Amino acid sequence: MPWEDRPKECDRPLWRYSRNPIVTKLVVPKCNSIFNSAVVPFGDGFAGVFRCDNDCRQMRIHAGFSKDALHWEIEPEPLTFATAPDGLGFDYAYDPRVCKIDGEYLVTWCNGYANYPTIGIAKTRDFKRFDQLENAFLPFNRNGVLFPRKINGMYAMLSRPSDNGHTPFGDIFLSYSPDLKFWGRHRLVMKTDMPWESTKIGAGPIPVETSEGWLLIYHGVLTSCSGYVYHFGAALLDLDDPQKVIARGKRYLLAPETPYERAGDVPNVVFPCAALCDAATGRIAVYYGCADTVTGVAFGYINEIISYIKNN
Ligand code: BMA
Question: What is the pLDDT of residues 197-248, one digit of tens each?
């Protein structure tokens, strides 16, 4: 996985790659912006699903491939589905996550159905052919994030019930499914809390399984005089019952700071959607959208993030 050591002057739990942004609109023709995107290890390299808004400002998702997870080749055309449940529309797609589970890759995203946002799901083995499954929930919902293994025999997904607009509220909920088709046993996990996350929160990358619990990195939004400000924070959830929050950081992990996070189509946004981890070294690389325009990556150590959550 990609890596860069912590710069000497940095005393934070995450630090940005010095060559951010790693993906810009130049990789895809007729593109407006590439951000809020998900990557996973694949074969002897990496694959991903990228949010590419086109120059009609339609929101689409595209597959991509990379040898080093920093330089990406992204398919020029949006991904399409080889099969889809009858009657399931596909008006728009954004903010994908990719989860490897039982040898398959499951993609979740904010899926426009009847022009309302909800959680779409598709599966792929090769990032070429995608088969769409049923939407997980009724509208309105966003930020559907699967756990990377079944929990007590069930698929588990975090999500953020919302509205049809820019949603001035939102907490993280957990739902279970025996078959990826029918979802239920919906439970609250976390509500908004500290000022940096006081407007709404939503799950980010696929949770990382650690000996201390599931490490959940999530986005938290503050409403400022000039609009929303997106940060990321972290919490630890119980391994067997992720509805239980073991610890939650009161301080944010990362806030918009650099010019590419401060300025863009939507200023002051850092929006995490994926993480690559190396168990041997404890390293994590978090992929995040910057100002709804480009994609960046930040590095850290999982044990330091866990200590940061517990100590703050
Ligand atoms: C959210 C989503 C994200 C976006 C963010 C900031 O509601 O639409 O895709 O990054 O707003 O604009």
Answer: 999 999 999 999 999 999 999 999 999 999 999 999 999 999 999 999 999 9
Point out the ligand 1 atom lying closest to the alpha carbon of residue 292. Answer: 10
Mean pLDDT of 45-59: 98
In the predicted structure, residue 89 carries a pLDDT above the cut 80: no
Give CA–CA dist 36/30, Å, rounded. 18
Q: How far apart are CA 122 and CA 133, in angstroms?
A: 5
Output the pLDDT for position 54.
98
Give 132's contacts (C-beta < 8 A, 6+ positions apart). 81, 83, 84, 85, 88, 90, 120, 121, 122
Q: Decide: pTM greater than 0.90.
A: yes
CA distance 114 to 193: 33
Q: Token digits for 279?
A: 């168990």
CA distance 79 to 221: 30
Taking the C-alpha atoms of residue 16 and residue 77, their distance in angstroms, rounded to an integer, is 30
Count the residues in the chain. 312
3-class secondary structure, 311: helix
Which atom of ligand 1 lies nearest, measured to the CA of 94?
Answer: 9
Distance from the alpha carbon of residue 288 to the mean position of ligand 1, in angstroms: 12
Amino acid identity of residue 209, one-letter, is E
The Cβ of residue 151 has, within 10 Å, a number of other Cβ atoms equal to 16
Average pLDDT, the chain: 97
**Could you tell me the sign of the dihedral formed by the alpha carbons of 40, 46, 47, 49, in that order?**
positive
How, if at all, do strands 172-177 and 184-190 pair? antiparallel
Residues in Cβ contact with 167 at an 8 Å cutoff, skipping those fewer than 6 apart: 140, 142, 200
Given a cut of 80, whether residue 19 has pLDDT beyond it is yes
> Which residue's CA is the nearest one to ligand 1's atom 1?
166
Beta strands 184-190; 155-161: pairing state? unpaired
- Based on the number of CB atoms within 10 Å of its own CB, is 180 exposed (0-12), middle (13-18) or buried (19 or more)? middle
Phi, psi values for residue 172, rounded to 5°: -95, 130
